[in-house]
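Assess this today:

___
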Amino acid sequence: MSENRPNPKVKCIVNTCTHWMPGNKCAAANIDILNEEVGKMSTIPEQTECKTFAERRGIANMLGSSDNVNWVGFAEEMVGQGRQLNPTVTCVVDTCKYWYDGNLCNVEAIEIVGKKVSECQATDCATFEYSGRPSKNEKMQQAREKGEKFR
């Protein structure tokens, strides 16, 4: 791994999300990948979730999620300047073989999936592979679920 922050390319096929863009791109500035259930650490992709998911239900909902948009990348993508529109990835699923210290994802690309979903629990990180390691992040995820600052 390089000295730079690893950041996988994100392919998102969750077209019901406010951040989804044609070409299965994600316009979010950052996505958070979590274990679906606090206290039940992931061993299969279906136990992960994209916590950043916000259902596309109308203009009010779209505006509500606008604080987490990669505006520069979005604008460049729309005018065809060739920039890769790609969010940073924060992942607390430390039972994944691609998890890296600092809640980073150390893989070239990830895929977020979920057909006709309306809540983040129905999304999955399809790239997740169980490492066989016990989790060290349970307390951090519990703090996140309580609305405390996520680090």
